[in-house]
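Why this split exists: single-chain examples teach little about how molecules sit against one another. For that reason, every record in the complexes split bundles all components of an assembly together and asks for one structure covering all of them. Below is a record exactly as it appears in the raw files.
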Amino acid sequence: MRVDILTCLPRLLESPFNDSILKRAQTKGLVEVVVHDLREYATNKHRTTDDYAFGGGAGMVMMIEPIDRCLETLKTQRAYDEVIYMSPDGELFNQSVANELSLRKNMILLCGHYKGVDERVREHLITREISIGNYVLSGGELAAAVVADAIIRLLPGVLNDETSALTDSFQDGLVAPPVYTRPADYRGWKVPEILLSGHEAKINEWKHEKALERTQKRRPGLLDG
Ligand code: SAH
């Protein structure tokens, strides 16, 4: 898989992809994440990527030209399955969207900043809009990192324990059961006996029960389906 991220603030994306699981996925060659600085595609003297809004109003708007030029360049190099604009009013991101996107080969994530991008970008240059929730961030960079993380960890070989992603919340329509590690007794707060019993079938039964209980309590909507 290849993920290209377009931004006017590439530094914001440095750390999320340079540690832990996301870094290892790249080192192993399972995914290529390439961040593009939109300023490099600006044509004006000061390499600005934003301008005042037509009709007035507070806040700068990201110009269409640098975005279009960057997209054109990338599209001559390979075919893209999706060009996604990160947007607070886009389709709400969830595990099933992550699952769907994890099957794509090449995708572009476009990050807005300031007041967002010129509407013509949304009308003509993208395939889809994704929101990570009903709140407004300063820029699309953190949202793009969230989406990329959720997708990349699903790629075969990225997680050490192959079954690990499958037992996470939402994958089987339930949230995850509680987990514990050593010590078995901390200040008198004990780990449930059953988990120390070594009885695999009983343990699995317990985990399923707890997952169900927790789903009923926290995300009853998941059980409706
Ligand atoms: N004026 C816009 C918000 C712009 S926020 C509005 O009211 O809708 C600046 C940028 O941050 C957006 O262009 C988008 O790329 C990103 N962004 C903000 N909140 C987001 C969210 N919840 N999900 C995804 N991207 C978001």
